[in-house]
Amino acid sequence: MFSTNGKLAGTTGVLLLMAAAGLAGCGGGKEAPRKAEALPAVRVAAVKLAEETVPEIYEATGTVRARVSSVVSARVMGYLREVRVQAGDTVQSAQVIAVIEAREIDSGLKQAEAAREEARSAMPEVNNAITAAKAQLELAEATHRRMKSLFDQKSITQQEFDEVEARLRMARANHQMARAKRAQLEQKIRQAESAVAQAAAMKGYMEITAPFRGIVVERKAEPGMLAAPGMPIAVIERDGGYRLEAAVEENRLGKIRPGMEVEVILDAAGEPRQGRVEEIVPALDPGSRSFTVKIGLAGGLLRSGMFGRARFPMGEKRTLLVPASAVVRKGQVEQVYVIEGGVAHARLVTTGAAHEERLEVLTGLRAGDTVAAPAPAELRDGSRVEVRP
Hints:
- The protein is of the alpha+beta class.
- About 35% of the residues lie in helices and about 35% in strands.
- The protein is built from four helices and 23 strands.
- The chain has helices spanning about 1-40, 105-120, 125-150, 160-205, and strands spanning about 40-45, 45-50, 50-65, 70-75, 80-85, 90, 95-100, 205-210, 215-220, 225, 230-240, 240-250, 260-265, 275-280, 290-295, 305-325, 330, 335-340, 345-350, 350-355, 360-365, 370, 385.
- It has a six-stranded antiparallel β-barrel with strand order 3-12-15-14-13-16.
- A hairpin with a 2-residue loop joins β20 and β21.
- The longest helix is centred in the middle third of the chain and has 47 residues, at about 160-205.
- The radius of gyration is 49 Å and the shape is rod-shaped.
- The chain starts with a helix and ends with a strand.
- Mean pLDDT is about 85; it is low at about 1-35.
């Protein structure tokens, strides 16, 4: 019995303490508003909002690409003896960037040169043969003229005259044959020279050169690899020629034209720069429903792959502007303090493009609202305010 009564007494005491605490809390709640009302008013500057006419800017994102990019490839088969460039190197036009070792090409060039010299060495003998045949022909023609005169005078027989004519025909045939042999030899020499030129060109392909001055953006081969025609060795971009390729929504394309001046912002390059629309790709990307607009860039440190934004002028529009100093940001949330009846009310807003020191208001405010600008750090939702002149 004693134990049970002790427990009941303890329980009763706890309940009384809880009730007393609740009453104290209720009493404090009634005093809170009175304390808030007693706080001094926050002095603020106020701005009344109104719609204004501002330039309409459409912003599109894109990537910097080289205007001219070349994949330098091997043109003959052989083992790579050297690769003389690394990614990031600057190369000059015709600079050797790799060397291929191909003994078969060297051997072919030597054989072609030997065949050409052999053909050339036979030319004096053929020329001598032509000279001899020509001399025999001239003698046969002179003899024929004399015998013809004698034959007309009946001084020689028909048989003797026929023999003279036969020797003339033979001399003519020998001369023509000698000239034909020289023509054949000349053709053989031309073929040999062509073979030498071809072999020399193949030997020239053993040295792979840069097509223009530029920057090596990728090295695709290593020494010791077996190169084959068409195998890529390196990727080179022409120095100084870059464009921003921006994706533009199809409903904006009607207001964009070649030659248009565009402001370009590259996050990695610092200050905004001016660009010019050089090309509008006519094909539409069915996935994003956008067109690619290529904007020429000049000057500065540019590299392929940089992220950029293009700001296209679209004319003018009417919009509501709020001072940037009036917007309070808390993480991803934006709010301003609207003043109504001497009290500041926090209101969530969505802002858009910046116009100097003011921001476009997309949602949350309307024309005629009065906002605190700048918003003091001590200002809270429900604070009494005193608008200073």
